[in-house]
Amino acid sequence: MYPTHPFIDPIAISIGPLSIHWYGLMYLVGFAGFWWVGRIHARKPWSAVKPDQVGDMLFYGVIGIIIGGRLGYALFYNFADFLSNPLMLIRIWEGGMSFHGGLIGALAASWLYGRRLGVGFFRITDFIAPLTCIGLGAGRIGNWINGELWGKPTDVPWAMVFPAADMLPRHPSQLYQAALEGLALFLILWLFARQPRPVGAISGLFLVGYGVFRFMVEFVREPDAHIGYIAFGWLTMGQVLTVPMVLAGAAIMVWAYRRPT
After folding, report:
1. Beta carbons within 10 angstroms of residue 37's beta carbon
2. Cα separation, 206 vs 191, whole angstroms
3. How far is the C-alpha of 138 from the C-alpha of 151, rounded, in Å?
4. Which of the residues 44, 73, 140, 252 could staple to 204 if both were Cys, CB 3.0 to 4.6 A apart?
5. More confident residue, 79 or 32
């Protein structure tokens, strides 16, 4: 017998008319982790950001992630709904955020904040790359709590039944992503960033690491029902969007190590 995903009310806290969802709490965990670990990260002598600047950086990032993530979801995953009802963009409480859109928003915010500080773009992205993984991991835990974005049917011993899908045992792909894109990638980048690196190297490693992990998990993750497979009977939208990330990350790392110091 396989364990069944426990039904967890998506609303974590209700205070009068105010309802706080678990997924929203996971965003707060990610932002709080960014601020706390970021202040530690900023104590390194070669850091582009000082500890007392992390809060302002986080503010820019939050705005960029929310706007970019919502736009990315509408354009990449739910374009038909967006065309018929553009106001769906502001219905954040209904869910629907795209990592790739959030990444673009975060990069735009990094560029703006870097201009404010007079610090180069890649020095900012090198700083935030390890910290981003905290939010990625927390977000996937939120997906698991909600019982959404489940994996494909399987008979592996650690499979789980997600009643919202059916009664078949499935890969708990949300937990795979939390472990890989969250914990594992954070440790890789944090250890890599313990020593001074060429400008852009940490950013490039983040793109490669996330891209490879996401591409792998997509093989056992159920594709979005309204999109399905893009090509060849196995290629998903997540994989299509991830390949350019890996190529760009590899190119940035080559550039970082070959450019004059």
Report:
1. 17
2. 12
3. 18
4. 252
5. 32
- Other CB atoms within a 10 A radius of the CB of residue 194 amount to 9
Distance CA 220, CA 249 (A): 24
The string over 121-146, giving b where at least 16 C-beta atoms fall within 10 Å of a residue's C-beta and e elsewhere, is bbbbbbbbbbbbbbbbbbbbbbbbbb
CB 69 within 8 A of CB 97: yes
CA dihedral 135, 137, 139, 143 (to 10 degrees): 180
Residues 6+ away with beta carbon under 8 Å from 223 = 229, 236, 237, 238
Q: How confident is the model at residue 251 (pLDDT cuts 50, 70, 90)?
A: very high
Q: What is the pTM of this model?
A: 0.87
Query: Do strands 160-161 and 169-170 pair parallel, antiparallel, or not at all (unpaired)?
Result: antiparallel
Cα 220 from chain centroid (whole Å): 18
What is the C-alpha separation between 44 and 98, in angstroms, rounded? 32
Spatial CA neighbour of 199 closest among 248, 130, 260: 260
Q: How many CB atoms lie within 10 A of CB 72?
A: 21
Kindly report, residue by residue over 57-109, the tens digit of the pLDDT.
999 999 998 888 888 777 777 777 777 777 666 666 555 677 778 888 989 99
Ligand-binding annotation for 140, yes or no, is yes
Question: What pLDDT, in 10s, does the model give residues 61-72?
Answer: 999 988 888 887
pLDDT one-digit tens code per residue, 136-156: 999 999 999 999 889 999 999
